[in-house]
Amino acid sequence: MANVGIVVISHSEKAAEGIKEIVDQAVGKVAVEAAGGLEDGEIGTSLEKIQAAIQHVHNDQGVVMFYDLGSAKMNAEMAIEMLELENVHLAEAPVLEGAYLAAVEASMGKSLKEIVKALEKEF
């Protein structure tokens, strides 16, 4: 059985990759994908990168997503709408702390609903 996947969205490719690296090294056993920056490496968010990240980690258990700033949230919401996938949740939690907590919970086999509840309780 696969665990809930995690997507980290940031305006900075380096920030998204850094958060992914922290979560991968600290927790492991969970699919984490970074969607940071624009295609040309500039600061911003890319709808296409976000969609690809969701598709890469999506499974029957679902995906929880974290973002850094408002326009990242807007692009994440559009990506969710366009992909029409089940069990995708955009979390309202700090990107690093939230992704870390979600990864710990996912590594224990918790459901998307249980992870969202833990995030809401913590943040």
Quick structural gist:
By secondary structure, the protein is of the alpha/beta class.
The outline comes out as globular
Q: How are the strands of the largest sheet arranged?
A: 2-1-3-4
CATH topology annotation: Rossmann fold
Rounded mean pLDDT score: 96
Helix content: 40-55%
Query: What's the SSE pattern?
Result: EHEHEHEHH
Report the count of strand segments.
4
> Count of helices?
5
What percentage of the residues does DSSP assign to strands (E)? 15-25%
- Rounded to an integer, what's the Rg over CA atoms? 13 Å
The top level CATH class name: Alpha Beta
CATH architecture term: 3-Layer(aba) Sandwich
The count of domains is 1
- Beginning-to-end CA distance, first to last residue: 28 Å
Low-confidence stretches: none
User: What is the CATH H-level superfamily?
Assistant: Phosphotransferase system, mannose-type IIA component
Structural classification = alpha/beta
Largest sheet: 4 strands, parallel
List the helices and strands and how they pair.
Blueprint: E1 5-10, H1 13-26, E2 32-36, H2 47-57, E3 63-67, H3 70-83, E4 88-90, H4 95-107, H5 112-122
Parallel strand pairs: 1-2, 1-3, 3-4
Helix pairs in contact: 1-4, 2-3, 4-5
What does this structure look like?
By secondary structure, this protein is α/β, with parallel strands linked by helices. The chain has a single domain, classed as 3-Layer(aba) Sandwich (Rossmann fold), CATH 3.40.50.510. The protein contains 5 helices and 4 strands, in the order βαβαβαβαα. The chain has a 4-stranded parallel sheet, sandwiched between helices. The longest helix has 14 residues, at 13-26. The termini are far apart. The mean pLDDT is 96.
